[in-house]
Design goal:
By secondary structure, the chain is of the alpha+beta class. The chain is built from two helices and six strands; from the N terminus they run E-E-H-E-E-E-E-H.
Amino acid sequence: MTAKKCIFCGAKADLLCDHHLGWERMRGQMAKEAPNLVLLGSSHVPLRYRKVHTCDAPLCRACAVRDGCMNFRLRYLGSFSDTIDYCPGHDNFGTIAKEITGLEAEAFRSAWRKAANAARGIEVSTQVDLFGRVPI
């Protein structure tokens, strides 16, 4: 996890939002392993060739809407669990049936974080200065 602060309150973030934005087909892997599947319609692409995009907004435990817990028990490797958490505005599972690109997912994440920061009263510039110059 790269961000350390919750986007809603600014506290220490322990979780990431699991809201589904959509999925993207892994064209390179499909072309290598199953070239006959590359031209399939989006409803027929096998799950192993789909990369699921989620919101991934950093959340603290107080702001997260907890939806459940998954427990995994591996025969000789022990067990672990993972929680399913959403942003306060993402109280549902989302749409996993929608095919999107990675750029569309990143645009949604950027707009969602900008709206959350605006609700907190933080003005964040979307302009990035690559060379360290002072903006005019």
